[in-house]
Amino acid sequence: MDKNKMSASLSENMGYLNSYLAADTNFDLIYRVIKIGGKEACMYLIDGFCKDDLMQKILQYFVGIKEEDMPDDAHELSKRCLPYVEVNLLDDWDQITYFIMAGVFALFIEGYEKCLLIDARSYPSRGVGEPEKDKVLRGSKDGFVETVVFNTALIRRRIRSQYLRMEMLHAGKSSQTDIVLCYMENRVDHAFLNQIKDRINEIQVDALTMNQESLAECLYKKKWYNPFPKFKFTERPDTAAAQVLEGDVVILVDNSPSAMIAPTSIFDVVEEADDYYFPPITGTYLRLSRFLIAILTYFITPTFLLLMENPQWIPSGFEFIMVKEDMNISLVWQFLILELALDGLRLAAVNTPNMLSTPLSVMAALVLGEFSVNSGWFNSEVMLYMAFVAIANYTQASYELSYAIKFMRILNLILTAIFGIWGYIAAVAILILAIGTNRTVSGKSYVYPLFPLNFKQLSKRLLRYRLPGARD
């Protein structure tokens, strides 16, 4: 007899489960012996996941079954006497214990060789309101939540196609985290899809403690030192649905209110939903503005530092950019200190209670404003350029891309301060190499369609054309 299979003896099944799940120790693991149709039965459930009113009605129905109407096996019982939709029959202990710990109602009946699993779960969750990070000026105002079933429903609401697939996988020995792959069967790259499935199935970790970030590090282990993002994260169902329709794979992780999109290029990361919620001309302007601002945030402070070290290179008519006050601290140290200070303020803002956010903003404006200039620590020109960089960073929806540009900017500042023009050129070369040699999760070029060049696709990435189906 297979030890991993349940038996028809209720007492043996209860003995195994009570020992394996420590039912007498865990207060929230409830088991109760009842009688159904003259047969002894026992139900197992997790308190907090159970819909009380629904379970009460199901139990009332079970108790009302007469002994002469009681079927001889679980299949007949599920067909004739179970008034519920989501029912499964299993006899494998690994699967049964997994579903019990996931909140599924399990029913064992004396003489039945299979367990009835009734999915009547109700997860604690918040409303699907607009996410704080991925806001848009126009468009839908719903967002992903921490419950993966709700997130799949938000995508299903937008894609009513028979080719849409929602495939469930699990990872983590202890956590058994639910992972859902969303894709279009007739549009996805099946070789890449199978590659993602194999990588998830091969994950050997105890738990995905940090949800999507833990999964991302398990899926992409190469070139971890390259800061440019390998995945695009979004909390917007409309963005995720659009990527699914384009043939990408969207990965949803339970307990995470965002979706991972793969494969992702640098052009995918820069795109935002607002590009498509406005007319083509406005969308093109927004997209090109975002590209330009991202380039400026990298070049503005290192270029200023280079020109201050070589005033003879300043073009005629731009002499006003010169630092006019005395410098008590070298420019490179001023920039580096402010880079650190801005991150400190960002971290403080995240951990500041709402009632204290206004006083913190006032204090930060005073300390990093006129007071810091008057004290002699910083020059006003440095404060101006770093203020632009700090504000411009928020034009990118991707935190990962903002920090990648920040790390490259700091490297450029350091090399320019040490080696001058040659350090500046070397830093730009490192930036180009970091982007050019980076690869997507599928192993393709990170800068496609720029390299290899596909002019038609590149124009679509840079310009916002009319949506498919629009007529002149």
Please explain how this structure is put together.
- There is one protein chain.
- With 472 residues, the protein is an alpha+beta fold.
- 45% of the residues lie in helices and 12% in strands.
- It has 17 helices and 10 strands.
- The protein has a 5-stranded antiparallel β-sheet with strand order 1-2-4-5-3, with helices on both faces.
- Strand 4 and strand 5 form a beta hairpin.
- Helix 5 (148-156) packs across helix 8 (237-245) and helix 15 packs antiparallel against helix 16.
- It is elongated, with a radius of gyration of 29 Å.
- The termini are far apart.
- The mean pLDDT is 88.
What can be said about this structure in brief?
With 472 residues, the chain is an alpha+beta fold.
Walk me through the topology:
Blueprint: H1 10-20, E1 29-36, E2 39-46, H2 52-63, H3 74-80, E3 87-90, H4 93-101, E4 105-109, E5 115-118, H5 148-156, E6 164-171, E7 177-184, H6 190-201, H7 212-219, E8 232-234, H8 237-245, E9 249-253, E10 259-262, H9 266-270, H10 274-277, H11 280-309, H12 331-351, H13 357-374, H14 380-392, H15 399-419, H16 421-436, H17 455-462
Antiparallel strand pairs: 1-2, 2-4, 3-5, 4-5, 6-7, 7-9, 8-10, 9-10
Labels describing this entry:
472 residues, alpha+beta, five-stranded antiparallel sheet, 10 strands, elongated
What's the total helix number? 17
Can you tell me the overall shape? elongated
* Count of β-strands: 10
Assign the structural class, choosing from mainly alpha, mainly beta, alpha/beta, alpha+beta, or little secondary structure. alpha+beta
Uncertain stretches of 5 or more adjacent residues: none
Strand order, sheet with most strands: 1-2-4-5-3
Give the SSE order as H and E letters.
Answer: HEEHHEHEEHEEHHEHEEHHHHHHHHH
What is the helix fraction of residues, given as a range? 40-55%
Instruction: Name the quaternary structure.
Output: single chain
Spatial extent as radius of gyration: 29 Å
The mean pLDDT is 88
